[in-house]
Amino acid sequence: MARQMARLSAIFLVLALFAPHASATPVATTKEERDTYGRTFLEPAASTNYIQFGAEGHGEFESGFKLLQKLYPRYVHITTVAKELHNPNAVSVGQDGFPAWDSNDTGDGLPLYVVTLTDDKVPDKDKQYVVLTAGHSAEPCGREGSARFLEDLVIAATETPDKVFDNATGTSGKTFEMTAGEILKRTKIYFLSPSPDGWAIGDGQMAEHSQYNGAGINSNRLAYSDGWSFPRDSTLYLRGYTTFSQPEGIAMTEYLRKVRREELHGRPFAVGMDMHGPLPTGFILLHDEGSDPQKLERMVDLGTRVKQNMEETVPAFGPLDDALDAILYALRDRLPDNRDFGTLDNDAWRLQGWGRWGFVTHIVDSLGYTVAGSWGGFFASNSGLDAVSLSYEINCRPSSPWAGADEQLYANNVRK
After folding, report:
1. How far apart are CA 283 and CA 314, in angstroms?
2. Are strands 283-286 and 388-393 parallel, antiparallel or unpaired?
3. How many CB atoms lie within 10 A of CB 271?
4. What is the DSSP letter of 125?
5. For residues 21 and 17, what is the distance between their CA atoms, to the nearest angstrom?
6. 316/284 Cα distance (integer angstroms)
7. From 2, 47, 161, 262, which residue has the greatest number of CB atoms within 10 Å?
8. What is the rounded distance in angstroms from the CA atom of residue 285 to the CA atom of residue 229?
9. Beta carbons within 8 Å of 275's beta carbon, 6+ residues apart
10. For residue range 55-95, what is the model confidence (pLDDT) as tens digits?
11. How far apart are CA 266 and CA 383, in angstroms?
């Protein structure tokens, strides 16, 4: 701990000395800055704000990953959905509320970035494909943690090749261990943000990110999935149930389906995870889109492994069964059949709480509201990516003000 605090103190001193030449968060945008900071995306404890999307999208996220692409061309690539689809209309709706194809559009649509991480020296044909998103920009800890997690992998693959990562024991009791280099040889990871409008509006100090795109539509209601969805009823429309009507949803689903069709030749993505983060309690949501029992079993196993790994980052505060049961029984009354949650130890369909917060699985609608068009649902859907899909509702403070110590905990959980 003393060594870590000394390192952070040194970083703070460097930031003070180099402040006129550094970006606000800061994120290294040149090799010289990265050599000074030690990373491209600094640890949250050494940062002063969220990663900035930037005017017209040309901010810290783009420049940080372009630097990583330059430094690690074997592993990192950043592009846009518009470029990959050869379609200039594949951008966000923008703050004017009109999509790029509308004659009223002012050209303010923002890029939908795609970061891929894999070992380019190994053919993709036998790799497992994974997609990560941060569907709600006002819940930024998933986005903050994912950017740092991707950098962690390339650093480990090149600088500490013997470092081993594990995926806990899950429901099977079996742990799998691999180095970062092995992970990147066997997998191809996609990271996308479907909500650049909500992200960009939160740039600057004390600014608030938004859950909505420039047209006022919830950015986690933009995809499609198996089953029924709401009709274009005006009341439901105003509440955000607008499946597949916005350019972000149309462009991203078309792009990911194109990847599945052309690179995977129709076989499913392995895993999809959408990172969220509402207070006051966290959930691991398992997306059941009419999945077969074997797929649901894999979802529960993955959710259990995620929970087990995250627990390692949270201090132990002793038994919290009473507090967690109180949260769950409050939720119970919101379910249509007043389902009894049972006890923490005996309930077969829920995962126990970790640290100060609780998790439940989402085989049924345990949150007590109806959602159409979620990204987690699209990932799980047979008509989407047919992946083992989780929405990871980490317990994190939404948006400003920045609190580096809190964000460090959240980022470490996402990394796990």
Report:
1. 15
2. antiparallel
3. 21
4. G
5. 9
6. 20
7. 47
8. 19
9. 132, 133, 134, 135, 139, 141, 142, 143, 145, 146, 392, 394, 414
10. 899 999 999 999 999 999 999 999 999 999 999 999 999 99
11. 11
Over residues 304-325, the pLDDT tens digits come to 888 787 777 665 433 334 444 4
Please state whether 201 falls in left (phi above 0), alpha (psi between -120 and 50) or beta. Answer: alpha
Residue found under tokens 């059949």:
337
Cis link prior to 140 (omega < 30° from 0)? no
Spell out a b/e string for 300-310, using b for 16 or more CB atoms within 10 Å of the CB, else e.
Answer: bbbbbbbbbbb
- pTM value is 0.83
Instruction: Tell me the pairing of strands 187-192 and 113-117.
Output: antiparallel
Q: What whole-number distance in Å separates Cα of residue 360 and Cα of residue 351?
A: 5
- Residue that the structure tokens 């930024």 belong to: 140
* Residues near 56 by beta carbon (within 8 Å), at least 6 away in sequence: 110
**Which of 97, 105, 103, 107 minimizes the C-alpha distance to 56?**
107
Measure the CA–CA gap between 181 and 124, rounded to whole angstroms. 15
DSSP character at residue 45: G
d(C-alpha 415, C-alpha 86), whole Å:
33
Strand-pairing partners, residue 357, are 354
Q: 3-class DSSP state for residue 192?
A: strand
Amino acid at 247: P
Q: Alpha helices of 288-403 — where are they, by DSSP H?
A: 293-311, 321-332, 375-380
Using omega within 30 degrees of 0 as the cis cutoff, is the peptide bond preceding 280 cis? Answer: yes
Please tell me the distance from the alpha carbon of residue 184 to that of residue 408, in angstroms, as a whole number. Answer: 25
